[in-house]
Amino acid sequence: MPRRREPRPAPALELKTTRLAGIQVILNSAEHAALDTHISTLFAATPDFFGGEAAVFECGRLPADAPSPDWAWLAQELKSRGLNPFAVQNASAELAAAAQQAGLLVLNDAAPAPAVVAAEPAPEPVPEPAPEPAAAAAAPTRIIDKPLRSGQRVYAAGGDIVVLAAVNPGAEVIADGSIHVYAPLKGRALAGARGDTSARIFTTQLEAELVSIAGVYRTFESAPDAAVAKKPAQIRLADASQIVIEPL
Fold first, then answer.
1. Domains of the chain
2. Buried (b) or exposed (e) across 140-178, using 16+ Cβ within 10 A?
3. Sheet strands side by side (includes 233-238)
4. Beta bridge partners of 88
5. Are 197 and 237 within 8 A, CB to CB?
6. Given the DSSP bridges, would you call strands 161-163 and 153-156 parallel, antiparallel or unpaired?
7. Are the C-beta atoms of residues 173 and 149 closer than 8 Å to each other?
8. Are the C-beta atoms of residues 181 and 190 closer than 8 Å to each other?
9. What is the pLDDT of residue 45?
10. For 7-33, how does the pLDDT look when each residue is reduced to its tens digit (9 = 90+)?
């Protein structure tokens, strides 16, 4: 009888191009040695293929008890080979916390629902009126009035951000709400960072490297479309899954 061929083990990581022009780095392992070996092999033939393409770490395949990868090392290894990781997605709370400490954004980060504990049945329970939900305190809008240089990152937790000066290439503006840039937007803008699909990005001069709303992102290998390039524009989501860029 022919010997049955054993299935090949999954590589430590895989690369997938998404329809929104970004790169998804799918992690199948968190082990340093396995990742190091596979990265060296994977990029040996094409070390400069990606040319700075934005990338997101996809953590959904990692085991629930997987230790956190060395995120800072892993991001730097991929940067040295032409990718530009900026976020993680589908990460456990532990992985997400470690990734944030390494400077990565957590996409679609939602708190898990509280566990429901079944109670012993009681005869003819008397219903109690449900408490009124407490109104969430609105976070103040964060205002930035100085230019942002390459490598600088600002984040507005729980609200909007207004930038009154240029966001230069390599700089990053992140908000849980919307982003307003009343100057050239040449770096990255990530609105709705915790999953708000109604968030928008506004700028008086669109020249961005990357825009993202609620984890849906788009990069620009060249200039945006002529209708909006270097012009006032807004970026929003259509059907909660597609980036739409429109002139203002």
1. 13-107 (3.30.70.260), 142-247 (2.160.20.70)
2. eebebeeebeeebbeebeeebbbbeebbbebbbbbbbbb
3. 142-144, 161-163, 179-185, 201-206, 233-238, 242-247
4. 57, 106
5. yes
6. unpaired
7. no
8. no
9. 62
10. 556 788 887 765 444 678 889 999 999
Q: How far apart are CA 189 and CA 200, in angstroms?
A: 10
Q: Which residues contact 193 (CB under 8 A, 6 or more apart)?
A: 105, 106, 107, 109, 155, 174, 175, 176, 214
Averages of pLDDT over runs of 10 residues in the chain (248 residues) are 59 70 80 90 68 81 87 91 85 89 74 38 49 56 90 87 92 92 92 89 92 82 75 89 87
Neighbouring residues of 233: CB distance < 8 A, sequence distance ≥ 6: 202, 203, 206, 224, 245, 246, 247, 248
pLDDT of residue 130: 52
Query: Which DSSP category does 168 fall into?
Result: -
CB of 111 closer than 8 Å to CB of 96:
no
Q: Tokens 């984040």, residue?
A: 155
Rounded to whole angstroms, the Cα distance separating 147 from 171 reads 9
Q: Is residue 216 packed enough to be buried (19+ CB in 10 Å), middle (13-18) or exposed (0-12)?
A: buried
Backbone angles phi, psi at 210, to 5 degrees: -155, 140
Smallest CA-to-CA distance from 187 within 216, 166, 165 is with 166
| Angle between helices 71-79 and 93-101 in degrees, nearest 10 | 60
